[in-house]
Design goal:
The chain is an alpha+beta fold and about 160 residues long. It is built from four helices and ten strands. It has an eight-stranded mixed β-sheet. It has a two-stranded antiparallel sheet with strand order 1-2. The chain is globular, with a radius of gyration of 17 Å. The mean pLDDT is about 90. It binds carboxymethyldethia coenzyme *A (CMX) and cobalt (II) ion. Cobalt (II) ion (CO) binds near residues 107 and 155. Carboxymethyldethia coenzyme *A (CMX) binds near residues 35, 67, 128 and 135.
Length: about 160
């Protein structure tokens, strides 16, 4: 089955990918996390605990991204509650523009972050990291531009 995707500068109709590309080994192996940006991390953690009984599995400040995160484990995946640690964080900007909390990005698990990133780049889609870099809890990550990914910021996560 042919699948379609839209590349920068192309018309809405998109392009047809080859049978070979459509039949390649899937790069995404699992959902790693759904990231929800919030203005108040403590209140968000309380909400998940009181409403769903979900508790914090891991907490970390990722200074390079200007965020603090709390990971709540759901089966083999996480809910990543995310809050800015400084005013110039892109998450602070996102919360201001949006006017409140909401889904900020999706993290997909991949076997090899470098390989997945190169596959995305080779198809002409914009990425936000030229090479894989350290993420939280010892992972290796790379982000794909939301404007080339159906309006969704995507994080490729290698454990
Ligand atoms: N999801 C979908 N679209 C988004 C978005 C998001 N999270 N953030 C921004 N956009 C959209 C904006 O709405 C804007 O669209 P329009 O041009 O139609 O208005 C466009 O993308 C550009 O936005 P911008 O405000 O000019 O760009 P920013 O300076 O806010 O940067 C982005 C946006 C995605 C490039 C930046 O957030 C980034 O580099 N993200 C990767 C790193 C990251 O998100 N780190 C925090 C999480 C860390 C972790 O999970 O560990
Ligand atoms: Co994330």
């Amino acid at each position: 089955m042919a699948i379609t995707a839209r590349r920068p500068g192309e018309e809405e109709s998109g392009v047809q990918m080859s049978e070979a590309a459509a039949n390649q080994k899937p790069l995404l192996t699992e959902i790693d996390h759904i990231a929800i940006a919030v203005p108040d991390l403590g209140a968000a953690i309380d909400y998940y605990r009181e409403t769903f009984g979900a508790v914090v599995d891991h907490r970390e400040v990722v200074e390079s991204d200007g965020v603090e995160e709390a990971l709540l484990k759901v089966a083999e995946s996480y809910v990543q509650l995310l809050t800015p640690t400084r005013d110039d964080s892109t998450v602070a900007k996102w919360l201001n523009t949006r006017g409140g909390p909401g889904i900020h990005h999706v993290g997909y698990r991949v076997a090899d972050c470098g390989e997945a990133l190169e596959a995305v780049k080779a198809q002409g889609f914009r990425v936000l990291d030229d090479a894989p870099r350290p993420g939280s809890r010892g992972t290796t990550v790379a982000f794909i531009h939301p404007k080339d990914a159906l309006g969704t910021l995507i994080e490729l996560v290698q454990e």
